[in-house]
Amino acid sequence: MTQRLHLVFGGELVDPQSNAFRDVSEIDIIGIFPNYAAAYDAWKGAAHRTVDNAHMRYFIAHLHRLRDEEREASSTEELG
Fold first, then answer.
1. Cα torsion through 79, 73, 30, 20, rounded to 10
2. pLDDT above 70 coverage of the chain, percent
3. Which of 19, 34, 41, 64 is disulfide-compatible with 4, CB 3.0–4.6 A?
């Protein structure tokens, strides 16, 4: 069975029109979730808590898209 993990994170942006964080050391990691529905619920909760700050943004990263288990490992992964 394939796991479709999702990471929810966010923080204050330099400009609300960009995706550049003001301070990456202050990124708020909400967590890793086993499916999109759970990640969406977590994202929605975080976004609602910070709705008064136009510079705050939360994102859902599809971790399962970062790695294709069917492909051979890259040379850097082999170093690990």
1. 80
2. 80
3. 64
